[in-house]
Write a structure and sequence with these properties.
mainly alpha, Alpha-lytic protease prodomain-like, three-stranded mixed β-sheet, 67% helix, disordered C terminus
């Protein structure tokens, strides 16, 4: 996907979710105060953190989309993973805060009045809205292969799950178990921490040059071997670079080929890989000469 088009899609999705989250946060705060619900107030804090996290996504995507420069000749794509790491930290901090507030409130729940019905309806509204935002953001994240936006999608899903916990806690409290309302905040805490861990793990994977899935590498191998002049592949390695991929290939060509012919083989493989796999940012090809007996005539050298 074209870089400008990709950035536009990610930014548009982020802006849409920011405005929805601002509205939801206001509704939850009002419902939590009016209904006297600790769970709904915790849910409001979670939605508020979503606004901040989406702003982090916007900044990360814009920085990651900058062109290469002298200090960063390979580009800035990994800044999107840095944004995802920041989101994981925000999620974890939010989860701990929500859990602590819930525990403290649970210990003081004796004699507390049951939450009002307005809190229950606010939880239902939040479940529907946040689940819808999760699927919308997830779809755009997959289309654009954006780790930061996918992290934001999981933030929406964790908020939807926290609203489910809020609904259960508020309903339980209204049925005569007041401690269930603040204890729902503890469940929300655990769900948020789980989402934070998943976001963190995905971002780190893309920062430490992790290889692509085996299925993708096999597909690349098939494309490379199909090119004219390629006798065999000695090495194919991949590494994730943010949402992009770098590929390195060592192949064997006829030892009797001219330098021009060997270069042509390398160029065909290079263009075939980059053409067939849009996520590939660069494919580097090295050609080894192979004699008729199937033995390489030198260890290194040839055409790149």
């Amino acid at each position: 996907m074209d870089g400008t088009k990709r950035q536009h899609q990610v930014v548009r999705a982020a802006v849409v979710t920011v405005w929805i989250n601002v509205l939801l946060t206001a509704i939850k705060l009002l419902a939590g105060v009016a209904g006297g619900s600790q769970a709904m107030l915790s849910d409001a804090v979670h939605s508020g953190s979503d606004v901040l996290s989406t702003l982090v996504v916007l900044v990360g995507v814009r920085l990651a989309g900058k062109d290469s420069d002298r200090e960063h000749p390979f580009g800035h794509e990994r800044l999107e993973c840095v944004a995802a790491l920041l989101l994981a930290g925000l999620l974890a901090a939010t989860g701990v805060g929500v859990g602590w507030a819930g525990l403290r409130s649970a210990l003081q729940s004796a004699g507390r009045a049951a939450p009002g019905a307005v809190a229950l309806w606010a939880a239902l509204l939040s479940i529907v809205c946040k689940e819808g935002m999760y699927w919308y953001t997830r779809r755009v994240a997959k289309q654009t292969d954006s780790p930061a936006l996918m992290a934001d999608a999981w933030h929406h899903r964790s908020d939807a799950l926290s609203s489910v916990g809020s609904f259960a806690g508020i309903l339980g409290a209204r049925l005569g178990l007041p401690a269930l309302d603040p204890l729902a905040s503890v469940l929300i805490c655990l769900l948020i921490l789980k989402a934070a861990w998943e976001v963190f793990r995905d971002a780190v994977t893309k920062l430490i040059d992790t290889a692509c899935p085996r299925e993708l590498e096999e597909a690349m191998r098939t494309v490379a071997l199909a090119q004219e002049g390629v006798l065999r592949l000695d090495r194919l390695q991949t590494r994730l670079f943010g949402e992009r991929v770098y590929v390195e290939i060592d192949l064997c060509a006829d030892a009797g080929s001219s330098l021009t012919q060997a270069h042509g083989v390398a160029a065909r493989v290079h263009h075939a890989i980059e053409g067939a796999f849009p996520q590939v940012k660069h494919c580097m090809v090295h050609v080894n000469p192979l004699d008729p007996t199937g033995r390489r005539t030198c260890d290194r050298g040839g055409s790149h």
